[in-house]
Amino acid sequence: MLFLGISAFNVAQEKSSSEITILVPPAGHAETIIKVNGKVIDGEGGTRKYKAVLEKGKEAKLTIEALIEPNNYTKITRTKSIIVKAGVNAKLDLTIKDKKTDKIVVRWVPTPDDIVIKMGEIAKITKNDIIYDLGCGDAVMLILPIKKFGAKKGVGIDIDPKMIEIAKKKAKEAKLEDKLDLRVGDILNVKDLSDASVVLLYIGDDLGERLSPVLQKTLKPGARIVSHRFTLGDWAPTKTLTVKGEDSYEYELHLWVVGEKKELKKSDKQK
Which domains are assigned to the chain? Predict the structure, then answer.
């Protein structure tokens, strides 16, 4: 009887391994890091292997994260789950963008003051405008246009509470607290921008691509968007300009006017 009991115990504890092949986004500024259930796994390059050891006949749910740095100012966390069965190999593709679940954080980089003013000129800001800056940082992209053009109100949203504190301090120094609404929040959770007549951006292409549908859906016809350097996915700008800053560097600025098509260049019109 003792022999039979030990045999039954051994069968119950028999293990089987499953290999998961993970397709990984290419390295950019840094090698993509892969975590399985919160633990970093070794490896580099476009394919990683992970071995899961399970009891025979069992299955387990694994949460796999890719920590992606396409450039030195953007960090993307892409998370997917997979059910693994003991003894059955599997594959998971993390190279495909997921607009619903990808978390994107962009490091704040200031735009020079003279370029901010140029953006305001391109947007044709007036005293009747409400300006939004998504990823506002220190809110200078709101403060300067309000001071220069007399805009009615500015709304700034940033994911970093420390930057919002700095922004509020700068707003107080500029005596514009009554004209500025500064909020801590993830700009990817913004669902409605219908009260904005002008949006000023410097947020990176990845965030721009995610925001583009919200901007197109909720902004009123005639609203203007001006972005320093970065685009909004496949939404073609109405106009793109290159301007020279006081620092002698050239800056590319994109303008979208909601409801207007891309402005044709002379060379395009001749075709």
Answer: 14-105 (2.60.40.10), 108-269 (3.40.50.150)
